[in-house]
UniProtKB/TrEMBL annotation:
Full protein name: Nitroimidazol reductase NimA-like FMN-containing flavoprotein (Pyridoxamine 5'-phosphate oxidase superfamily)
A family per Pfam: Pyridox_ox_2
Gene3D superfamilies: Electron Transport, Fmn-binding Protein, Chain A
Amino acid sequence: MASNSSTTPVLEELDRAECMRLLGERGIGRVAFDDGEGPTVIPVNYAVDGDAVVFRTSASGRLRRSLLTSVAGGEVRAAFEVDRFDESSREGWSVLLRGGAHPLSDEEREAAAHVEPWPGGDREAWFRLSAREVSGRRLHRP
C-alpha cells in the first residue's frame, strides 16, 4: 500500500533563531567530542546562555579531560545536540551546535546561566560551548 503524501511527514530546515528557541525548551543534550580514542557522545544537563550552552561535569571525568586545552583562552572543537521525537506520530526536531568549548573561569561562572545537574556528586567543572554553527531540522505533518 502506498503512503498518502498528505500524511507523510515533511522535513524542514530550521533557521538559527528557531534552533536557539528550541534549545531553550530542553534541559538535557549530548556533547560530542574526540576523547583521544575517537568520537564520543555524553549526555549532560545544560542551560542556554546567549549564543552558547553551559554545562557542568565531573572534575575527574573524561569529558573534562577531553575539553581542556593547554592554550590559555583556547577552545576545543566540540558539538552539542538536542532533540525531541514522538515515535508514534513520527514527528520531532533536532538541533546541532558546533563550535569551541572552554572551561569557565570563576568570574564567568558567576555570570553564566545556572545549570543544576541531575546526578549527585562532584559536578564542579563548568564549560561553555559557543555556537559558531547552528543547524536544525523539524519533521512534521503538512
